[in-house]
Design goal:
It is a single chain. Helix content is about 40%, strand content about 15%. It has a six-stranded parallel β-sheet with strand order 3-4-2-1-5-6. The chain has a single domain, classed as Decaprenyl diphosphate synthase-like (Undecaprenyl pyrophosphate synthetase). It binds 3-methylbut-3-enyl trihydrogen diphosphate (IPE) (2 copies) and magnesium ion. One 3-methylbut-3-enyl trihydrogen diphosphate binds next to loops.
């Protein structure tokens, strides 16, 4: 059994990004509607955020809603938005208490306006918190982000941008690239997530469906990461 004591604290990933996938299949296995899976996925989010905080992870990025997810049935999309609203309401006090700073990546102008206000309020109330950055990807798509960055560069009149100039135009400005990218539910794809930022991230895919993703599964991913040799194109 993987346990917290096995983790090498000197080799912790600073930034972990997670593609939280498999809520729908989890519900289907239980003969329940997809939203039941999402509701249980939110419980996992709460648990994993708390655990990441305890482990001293600096940045946790969670893919919650993609630019492509609007193509799902209206009922599912509005259910997800309601869950987001509820999550912000339920978790704001705990973010404040636990020194967690909320950030959002993605185009939130398409999110219902009342939720945009809740998001801005939570970001503002937690902006000076230091222990953990909880970065939620909402209406996020990497291609949209990259195009947006190109437009910002043009507006700035930068004709020959450096990698740093480009990074500074992404939503993730000032956030280090993910060291570890986790995807649950077994799919071996990126689904338009952080294409620029994961250039050298270590990738870990587990078959566990997101609602079942436990502290132990999280530890397993970190232990696997700690066994990797990150070469960044160099030799050992
Ligand atoms: C991930 O679970 C949550 C979101 C994309 C919002 P899914 O809803 O994609 O679950 P599966 O992939 O259908 O099982
Ligand atoms: C990726 O999961 C998006 C989120 C986890 C929010 P999807 O379920 O939307 O991705 P695909 O469709 O399997 O690629
Ligand atoms: Mg999915």
């Amino acid at each position: 059994m993987a346990s917290i004591e096995q983790i090498d604290l000197s080799k912790l990933p600073k930034h972990i990004a997670i593609i939280m996938d498999g809520n729908g299949r989890w519900a289907k296995k239980k003969l329940m509607p997809r939203l039941f899976g999402h509701t249980n996925g939110v419980k996992t989010v709460k648990n994993i955020v708390e655990f990441a905080r305890k482990l001293n992870i600096r940045v946790l990025t969670l893919y919650a809603f993609s630019t492509e997810n609007w193509q799902r049935p209206e009922e599912e999309v509005s259910g997800l938005m309601k869950l987001l609203k509820l999550y912000l309401k339920q978790e704001l006090d705990s973010m404040i208490k636990n020194d967690i700073s909320l950030k959002v990546i993605g185009d939130i102008s398409k999110i219902p306006t009342d939720i945009q206000a809740d998001i801005k309020n939570a970001i503002e109330k937690t902006k000076n918190n230091k222990a953990l950055i909880l970065n939620i990807a909402l209406n996020y798509g990497s291609r949209q982000e990259i195009l947006r960055a190109c437009k910002i560069l043009i507006d700035k009149g930068i004709k020959d941008p450096t990698e740093k100039d480009f990074s500074d135009c992404l939503y993730t400005k000032n956030i280090p690239d993910p060291d570890l990218l986790i995807r649950t539910s077994g799919e071996k794809r990126i689904s338009n997530f952080l294409l620029w930022q994961i250039a050298y991230s270590e990738i870990y895919v587990t078959d566990v469906l997101w609602p079942d993703f436990s502290e132990e599964e999280f530890i397993k991913a970190i232990l696997d990461y700690q066994k990797r040799e990150r070469r960044f194109g160099k030799i050992a």
